[in-house]
Each structure stands twice: as C-alpha cells, then as structure tokens.
Amino acid sequence: MLAFMTYAERYYGKLIGYFLDHFKICMLTMFFSILIAVPISLMLTKHKRLSKGVMAVLGAIYAIPSMALFAMLVPYMGLGTTTAIFVLVLYNQSILVRNTVAGFDSVDKMAVESAVGMGMSPWQVFSKVRLPIALPVILSGIRIAMIATIGSATIAATINAGGIGALLFDGLQTMNFVKMIWGTILAASFALIFNMILEKLEKRALLKARGEYIPRKAKNK
Amino acid sequence: MTAVAVEFKNVCKHFPEAEVNAVSHVSLKINQGEFITILGTSGSGKTTLMKMVNRLHDITSGDIFFFGENINSLPVVEYRRKIGYVVQQGGLFPHMTVAENIAVVPHILKWDKEKIDARVDELLEMVGLKKELYKDRYPRQLSGGQQQRIGIARAMASDPAVMLMDEPFGAIDAITRENLQDELLRIQKALHKTILFVTHDISEAFKLGDRVIVMHEGKVQQFDTPDRIMLHPANDFVAKFVSADDVMKKLQVLKVHTIMDGLSIKTSNQLAVAHVDDTLETLLKLFMTSSTQTVLVKDDKDKIVGEVSWHRLSAIAS
Fold first, then answer.
1. For A209, which of B90, B95, B154 is closest by C-beta distance?
2. pLDDT in tens for each of the 221 residues of chain A?
3. Of B54, B232, B256, B289, which residue is most buried, by most CB within 10 angstroms?
4. Is residue A206 one of the residues assigned to a domain?
5. What percent of chain B has pLDDT over 70?
6. How many interchain CB pairs under 8 A, A with B?
7. Pick from B94, B105, B141: which is nearest to A119 by CB?
C-alpha cells in the first residue's frame, strides 16, 4: 500500500502523461469514428438495400481480434498512434453504424414528411427533426463504442501507441504490481467516468426526444 | 372572377416498377377559396395526386400550376412554405412544445419573436385550445384530436393560401372527428383558404367539400359538387361507390338547398324552419316531428329564402 502511494507521489507526472496520451488516442478515435459513421448511417437509412452487405462487412471487421489486426497493419502503416487510431476507428464502425441507423429509423415517418412538406431544407430536416429524435439511440452507441475504445486502446501500446497500456505492459514485463495496479485503476476509472457522463447525456437526450424534458429553471418554479 | 389556385394539366404519375400509372392524365382546375375533397379507396391515386401539388412526389408528365406559375419552375423548398400541410395524426415533432411546433415555419421565415408569439396565441385560439394550458405542452401529453388541432394550426402558421390535408382525421374517433370537421368548416368559411383534403370516407368528403374529386385507378371519375355526384353520378363506378341509389345515403348527403323551391306561401310562424345547409335527413326529422306539409328554409342570416314541400322531399326516393 505504501509502495503504491509512493509511486504515485514520485511519478505522478508520468501517470498523468500516460493518462493524457490515452485520453488523446480515445478522443481522436471517437472523433474520426463518428465523422465516418454518421454519413455511412445516413446512406444506409436512405438505401436500405445496401444495409445488409455493409453491416456484414463491418461485423466481420469487428470479429477480427485486435492484436491480429494491429500485427497485420504494422507492415503497411508502421508502428505508432496513427495505426492504433486507424484500427480503433475501424472497430467502432460496427457499433456506431448499427446504433445510428436504428436511431434514424426510430424517427416517425410522418414527422419527417411533415417537415419536408412544410418547407424545411434538407439540412433543417436533419438538424431540427431527425437528429434530435435519433440522438438518444445514437448516444447509446457512442457510449458503448467509447467504453470499447478505452479498453482496446490499452492493447495499442503493443504497437508503440503509448497511453495507459504502456504502463500496464511495462508492469507486466517487470512484474511490477504497483504499475499494473495503477494502470488498471486509471483505465477502469477512465471508462467508468465516461460511461457515467455519456449515460447522463443519453438520458437527457431521451427525455428531450420524447418531449419529457423539464429545464432546471422551470423545475424550481 | 376568382383566381385559379391550382391547375392540373394532363398530369401523370408513374412509380418505377409499377405496372400502371398511379395518376393518369388528370386535368382540372381548383379555384381560390374552394374546399376540395379528394375521395377514393386506397390505391386510387388520391394521395399521390395531392402530394404532387407540394412536390413530395415528382410529376412524371404534364404540368401543375400554382396561381398561374408552373410549380417545377419554382425553388422547391421556398414553394412548399406557401402551402400548409397536414398529415394523419398530425405528424407533430415530439421533441418540440406545442408553441415550438406551431412556430416552425414562421421561425424558418425569420419572423421576429413578438410576431411569432402573437401568431401562436392567435392560432391556438382559432383551433379552440387555451394558450395558457397548451402552449408549453409536448405532443405526447395531448389527445389525438388535440394533436390534430395543433397540426392544423401549424400548417396555417404563415397564413398560406392553399392547404393540403392527407386524411387528417382518419385515426380519430367518430365524435371528435365530427367536431374537428365542423371546426375546419368554420375556419375555412372565415379565412377562405383553398383546401385539398384527401379522404376515403364518403360522408366526410361530401360534408366538407364544395366540390369532390372521385378517384379510381388513377383517374378522375367525377369532379363535381356533392349534390350533382349523388344525383347524377358520371358512371357506374361512382354510382356504386357513393351508393347513389340508396335513399338513406341521399338523405344523409344532399342538402336542403338542392330541392328548395321559391316561397309560394305567406311566411307563417307556425311552420318549421330548416337551414339551407342542413341535410335532407335533418329535414325529414323536421317533417316527422312537426307534421306539416311544408318546411321553410332560412339562410346563414336567418332570412327565409324558400320552402320545401313533403311532396318534393319524397320525390327523392323515386
């Protein structure tokens, strides 16, 4: 216990560094994942026929063990963060696209038809009607993908991507329990905190989409 | 002379992979201020015909004119804002309050806030909902009938000259439906909107429509007033569809003014009085309860304008 605290005291800068590296990898991964998943989902919502094929491909990618995919890509993309993020973005597509499509499908057809018929531009139909109603289901996908990314990103340390994984593997190789425990605590609390934050956002989006949301100032009246 | 609001010129609609045209060679003119109902069974092309007006469906061939302008020459999004659109069950946005729903088009048109607020209040009053109670509610907190009232208010927000209504009362219980029909008639009489109203309900089509378009297999079978459709159906299909040979149906649909004669007797207070727009069914009840040979007829201003004899009414049956 004492060693455990001393380590943090002596190397807190290092711990924060690992954490920030991990945070950066996860955030970049999520940013690109969403950027790619939303257009794919919108296309699949419009062209239902493509859906089966695309989902099968994304599902197959998701089924490849991450170590195998990392190993396969290193010869082409080299070691480091870029390759790691590329792989993690690929993995996320299956989860994100599935949820995003389900989200857009859950929007009442009549509401969309009304929106178009009353003269909303395609962007207005998307931003004012389809997205706010689909948002809770999309956020639920983002939450699951985020948790998966935080976990998988630790494995990315094997290809020199850095992050909490580096601490864990380092500890594992030298049988340094203190390092291992700190790695575990950091990774787990990172995942738990994000799960909580995204769950809150998801709940709020759900209440809004259903028309049950009461703003705080109205509650205090 | 009234302007032509919507004109169809030899309009056809063909959906890909369909064997026959959904709408086939339709030509007709709808005058400004007319309440037009489009009547037909499902698959008759009635909804397709209407959705071509606001370009939710593209025209395959032919032209539609909106106050003289070819609709395909107008920018589609801006054009749609000139037309009110009401769908079944209202199509309200569940994540917006009643006030936000109604304000959608004014908001897009960038009206200032005070003007939008005033308009929302005015519209809520028009559709018979108390603004203090309903403004901040969400659609899910409303009954089907109330949702449809908001749907109508929303479609009227920017005061469009033309309204399209796609079976708006289809999923609403009979009593509420009657009320909504009466309110819609009242609003239309006050505001002289041009309304195209799709329905499969014959009574509804004949009650609301100044003129009725009867559709079948993509073609207009007859486009005329309810009285003339009932008394002179254009073909066997129309006759069968509206049950033109059914006396009870005639009594329910025909209005007093179709069989009214000029005043021949001195006005007497003892006689029963019907309204020109009452149905013959109401008139029949009046005859049966008052046991007279003649009923007087009054107009909207309570002026006696004619009379109907029992003989004249019973001639309907033959």
1. B95
2. 677 788 877 888 888 888 899 999 999 999 999 999 999 999 999 888 888 899 999 999 998 888 888 888 888 888 888 888 999 999 999 999 999 999 999 999 999 999 999 999 999 999 999 999 999 999 999 999 999 999 988 888 888 888 888 888 888 888 888 888 888 988 999 999 999 999 999 999 998 888 877 666 554 44
3. B54
4. yes
5. 97
6. 78
7. B105
CATH of domain B4-246: 3.40.50.300
Q: Where are the beta strands (DSSP E) in chain B?
A: 4-13, 23-31, 35-39, 61-66, 69-70, 83-86, 162-166, 194-199, 211-216, 219-224, 273-275, 294-298, 304-309
Is residue A90, in this structure, part of any structural domain at all? yes
Q: Please give, rounded to a whole number of angstroms, the shortest distance from the CA of B84 to a CA of chain A.
A: 6
Backbone dihedral angles phi then psi of residue B112, each to the nearest 5 degrees: -80, 165
Which pLDDT value is given to residue B63? 94
Tell whether A220 is covered by a domain. Answer: no
Query: How many Å is the maximal CA-CA distance in chain A?
Result: 69
Can you give the residue ranges of every domain in chain B? 4-246, 252-317
Q: Which pLDDT score is estimated for A217?
A: 55
* Interface subset of B 54-113, CB within 8 angstroms of A: 54, 56, 77-85, 87-97, 104-105, 108
Domain of residue A195, CATH code: 1.10.3720.10
* pLDDT tens readout for residues B166-216: 999 988 888 888 889 998 998 898 889 999 999 999 889 998 999 999 999
- CB-nearest to B85 from A111, A117, A121 is A117
A132 touches chain B (CB under 8 A): yes
Name which of A171, A152, A173, A148 is nearest A161 in CA terms.
A152
Q: Which CATH class is domain B252-317?
A: alpha beta
Asked if B2 is an interface residue toward chain A (Cβ–Cβ < 8 A), one would say no
Say which residues have a Cβ less than 8 Å from residue B263's Cβ, sequence separation at least 6: B296, B304, B305, B306, B307
- Give B91's contacts in chain A (Cβ within 8 Å): 108, 110-111, 113-114
CB-based contact B85 A118, cutoff 8 Å: yes
Total domains, chain A: 1
Which residues in chain A touch residue B164, judged by CB atoms under 8 angstroms apart?
117
The boundaries of the domain holding residue A82 are 9-211
The whole-number pLDDT of residue A221 equals: 40
Strands of the sheet containing B83-86, edge to edge, are B83-86, B162-166, B194-199, B35-39, B211-216, B219-224
Which residue bears the tokens 């709808």? B30
What does DSSP assign to residue A130?
I
Query: Can you tell me the distance from the alpha carbon of B213 to that of B38, in angstroms, rounded to the nearest whole number?
Result: 5
The token duo for A2 is 């004492």
